[in-house]
From TrEMBL:
Name assigned to this protein: Inactive metallocarboxypeptidase ECM14
Family, as annotated: Belongs to the peptidase M14 family.
Required co-factors: Zn(2+)
Location within or outside the cell: Secreted
Gene3D superfamilies, per the entry: Metallocarboxypeptidase-like (3.30.70.340), Zn peptidases (3.40.630.10)
Listed transmembrane segments: none
GO molecular function: metallocarboxypeptidase activity; zinc ion binding
Alphabetical UniProt keywords: Disulfide bond, Glycoprotein, Metal-binding, Secreted, Signal, Zinc
Reported function: Inactive carboxypeptidase that may play a role in cell wall organization and biogenesis.
SMART domains named in the record: Zn_pept
Amino acid sequence: MARRMIPLFYFLVSVVGLINVALASNDGVGKGVVGYDSYKVYRFYKNNGTGDLIKDMVLPLTDDFNVWTHNKNFIDIMIAKEINLENAKGIENYNYEVMIEDVYTAISETVPKKNENRNNNDINHQQESFDVGKINMDNFFFKEYRDLETIYVWLDLLKRSFPDLVNIETVGETFEGREMKAVHVSANNRTMNPNKKTVVITGGVHAREWVSISTACWVLYQLLARYGVYRKDTKYLNALDFLIIPVFNPDGYKYSWTTDRLWRKNRQNTYWPNCYGVDIDHSFDYNWVSNDNFPCSEDYSGEKPFEALEASSWNNYLNTTKGEYQIYGYIDLHSYSQEILYPYAYSCEAVPRDLENLIELSYGLGKAMRNKNGKKYQVLSACQDRGSDLTPGLGAGSALDYMYHHRAHWAFQLKLRDTGRHGFLLPSDQITPVGKETYAAIRYFCDFVLNPDL
Ligand SMILES: [Zn+2]
């Protein structure tokens, strides 16, 4: 135990310095940004509605809108405030409510607060008041969402603090030349893990889903900090390797900090000038179909499978660098909706090979999460969530299907908090509770994988 305490202490001290450096250089959200000061998010319930809500009702009023999420019960749409929905034809057929009154205010709740900004006096004050005995510094990093540069320096700190457990590897390079980093966590225990049983966790496939990134970091940190301290966590890391990619879409994530908080895709060129980005989660080569969308659309699939550089780099990395690793579990973190989704996404008619285990696992993950903080996570097939049962192709090319079909025994997509009150703009005070409930799910998952009866 003592062996672990020493590097942990230096790690915690270093985190303070890191955050200060990052904040000093951080452009933050604010410059050249896409403004969202005149938008609301509405939820339209489908029960009473007939026809196509967007085509029949929204488009005749405005083309200035953005669909946040949809499922069989409702659709959340961000629309400019000045649009008067009372004038919409057929609005009487829909029940609707305002979910977010002011998107701009909601955005401001997700960016680092004033007392953590570039003001040197504040930073000095923070350093003076630093006392490792009093402040739980391991939580300091998780007090706010962190930008890409800060996260990458933090990963290097983890490597220095836990050199026996951490390897930082390069998955590939993005369109804008950024490194896509994977953290390979391994206790290198050949006796307990001769087959290199591995659990893969990805965050940030969609840029605006910031809590998926903070949560991947949370899980990573718990695995390391608890190793050698807690019996169960030590057992997990002795018997399993973990591959964690906290920021699967570095260009998109960077862009969501500097320019457009609600950006979703990556940032590569398309055939259409001034339309950037491919939806990485529509780019994987398993049952890929073109979704016929204009390249400016948010879920543009590209013109061919693996067009998204991040998806093709991942495919290469996984099948060459990590070719011999046995992937037992894949968990792809997203937001929002509080859902646990199992394969397949592309079709509701395709029956997964071990549906029984997938469903048992899904409910187990959900129960572990609920037991932690009382938040309910709904279990459903990814195809239902994507709406592929109604519109084939909507769920094509997902990381979930690709991993389940090609590499992982069991694969899930977790849509984290919340259920729409804040949507993608989950305030930073929820980083820790979401991290805790997700780590509870990961522990359940490890128990399942390590069950000798399976
Ligand atoms: Zn997503």
